[in-house]
Amino acid sequence: MNDTVVTVVGNVATGVEFRESATGGVARFRFAVTGRRWDRQKEVWADGPTSFYTVWAWRTLGANLAASVSVGEPLVVHGRLRVRDEEGEGQRRTFVDIDAVAVGHDLTRGTSAFRRVVRAVPSLTERHEDATQGQMPHRTPGQAAGQVSGRTPGQVPGRVPVRAAGQGTIPFERPDPAPVGTTV
What we know:
Blueprint: E1 5-12, E2 17-19, E3 26-39, E4 44-58, H1 59-68, E5 74-88, E6 91-105, H2 126-131, E7 159-164, E8 168-175
Parallel strand pairs: 4-6
Antiparallel strand pairs: 1-3, 1-5, 2-3, 3-4, 5-6, 7-8
């Protein structure tokens, strides 16, 4: 299916409504986009008509939006455009939605401080261990629970802690670079 992908810049018009669901949650809010044009006769910037969109964000993006965005904040929204027509009470209405793929603050109009969400590492079940047929690393006698050879407790295999200059360890991680000669 061919989707129409758009990137729009505007302001949050309503509070973000977040609802948990069986699939992980969904957030929605109204988004106002007003084009500005240079009026040559008056030599000033003039506002054009304002378009309103309902932005939908699923799962982690939705939860992060609900925790990060307030009414009036400038955003950049990137996602799939959906136009739907509904008929009710004898009138036909058109709604324009954006299924968001990425959302961020518009840094041309202010600053923002990013905070990565730390997710807990899920524990492996016996069923998963059976499926990997003993490929899981094992503790040697004397090692603490959660510690596997060469790692400290809580360290995820294949990931290294990220450090910022003068700040110690930041509580998020980035993947190790792929070894030379491997394809990703």
